User: Fold these one by one.
Assistant:
Number 1:
Amino acid sequence: MPKLKTVLITGATGLVGGDILRYFHSNNWNVIMATSTKNIVSMDKRINIVPFDLANIPANLFSIDKITQLNAVIHAAAIIPRGNKLEHYDDSQVFLDNIAGTFKLIEQSVKCKVKQFVYISSANIYEQVNHEVKETFVPKPANHYLLSKWLGEEIANYFSRQGSTKFCNLRISAPYGPGYKIKAVIPILVERALKGEDLELWGSGLREQVFTYVRDISRACEMVIEKEINGTFNITGPGPVSMIVLANNILKVIQNTGSKTVFNGKQDPNEGLRRRLSIEAAKDAFSYEPLFDISAGIEDMVKHILNKPQPLYDISTT
């Protein structure tokens, strides 16, 4: 019987990292959760938990007994500004801790000759423009947090030239799924629909976003690891979706609650935004194609909210 592969995942209690954890576990990988969450206990023999604090990574992280013969590291953790509030995105300590922590994690991965390192970055490091954006465009991060994401990529690029470890930066766009903690537009509208409340739209409802279902991000991570990919790639859903199309798709999935779409009469500050992100590079490098359009993604998200899957870990409240 072939030996199972092992992946270390940071940020596995979050939206993106949580689905990456579940996806790799379901695909028969051994998973090491490196987490700062206190009182967390594994509920599966193929999931081991090690303490991990991005702001204080020990010099011997990879010498812990549970971390042996790693095939890959997926770095989905980030220190989020206080209270998950956008107004705190210029917190300089958040910036410094994210950069220093990412550097130390990558440095140790290289020293231990980890085969593949996947860094979960953000498509928001690009300037907001109305034309198609490729990976060759120079990022223009709008705040300290996004600047730390871009510099994390550059750290990965630097270390890719220092050893045998392959480094891949995935710039993901507007991720959504059932494990959300921050209330972005999709969780807000889904929750309102489930409660039978109206889905309020600003402006004309024609503002567009490129949403990405978390399962497509998880798939991209495994593709990268299997093909041992170097480089930087946009990872998105099939294409832009307007707010009114989003709301209508939510109501097609969540029916008979009395919820309906309404316009609140307020001006949308991002009215007219129609961003495009090219995924041609990912298609060429590792055959990435999103499987979830907005309808399929919302349907799967709601299914998991209403029928929660068996938990892979437990967090004690005592």
Note: Residues 92-111 form the longest helix (20 residues).
Number 2:
Amino acid sequence: MASFKSSLSITHIGTATAVLHIDNINLLTDPFFSPAGAKWPITEDFALEVTEDPALRMDQLPPIDAVLLSHEDHPDNLDHLGRQLLDGRHVFTTVDGAKNLAPRPAVRGMKPWETTTVLLGGAEYTITATPCQHVPGDECVGFILTTERFGCHDDGRPNAIWFTGDTVKIDDFARIPEQFHIVVAIMNLGSAFGPSPDGKPLQITMDGKQAASLFHSLGAEHLVPMHYESWGHFTQMGNDLKSAFKEGGVEEKVRWLTPGESVTIL
């Protein structure tokens, strides 16, 4: 990774919401800013409720250059406050998400493995959408970022930063290390469960064991956990995650975020 010339720090705001400070630009992931106690009914007998306030208010954010929105149709990834931050900014999301967020001309809907480029802060970034397996029937994507200043691995693969989006581990992820050297993997975890079509609980985000296994298969260098606190449908939180990472042999590779503080990763 000697050729990686960029800097990366991350300010975690809550759930899957964070600011990625890359050199002179700021990317925002899955904007959610509702206060503790906010609820969203999902079914007649199931509601999402957030238990903690966001670490930063919207008026405390730095200027945002672009938004990486894994999916627009779940309130814990995009709430009514976060939608205000989409106006007039580059937004990358799912194909359905782009349709549902129209008319916003700078919103780009992406299919899994589709690639696009964007000029931010004077540098060209390449963004590749990655597949997710989340809630049946709903679209969700992750995002791999590369740029010239990230450089390449010794074997020629471009160095990259990956934001997984909401997903469990899937076989399709085997394509990633074939094409990219993941320097930093920002993973949405929590082992969240939701209702399935047959009414049984369905795991919809990774647990620590899956995350550790995925990290090893990627050959990645740093693991940044997010999306494991503040919600009742999450079943594996901080201490349990730490135990899983230790058992999975990745604890020394994990970079824990402190809400509201900029944590230097690279």
Note: The chain has a mean pLDDT of 96.
